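#struct-help
A.M.: can someone run this one for me? Single chain, 133 residues.
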Amino acid sequence: MSDALVNPIPVLAFVPREDRPAMTAIFDKDFRPLFVDTLPEMLDALHHEPIPVLVCDTAFEGGTWKDVSRAIQSVASPPQLVVVSRNADLYDWGEVLRAGGRDLIQKPYDSKETLKSVWWAAYEWLKGKGFAA
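D.P.: on it. Structure tokens below:
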């Protein structure tokens, strides 16, 4: 895979428009956020470029993170799924993990927690591709 994949690391963000400034501010030089508005846009992006991490809101017009979790299984190299929620609790976190997601993070975004979660997800994806030890 190319160096463009790993530096900066692309992160697909399927989050509401009002969350995008906060998310852009959190990601530093090591991440390249790519924002999408719909499930078809998300799938199109994933089929065109290998993307290690997908950050997804719990709900969007026409679906939920569970629809996203199922949809990314059709991708040759599915990203690690990090779900964001305003009402995250231990039950929801367990549900995300049982469905194959990597993490559930709370809104409003805490920059350190968000970066830690996305870094861990990116590391796991890259490790699976032979890029990380």
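A.M.: thanks! Strands lie at 9-14, 31-35, 53-57, 59-60, 63-64, 80-85, 103-106.
D.P.: also worth noting: The mean pLDDT is 90.
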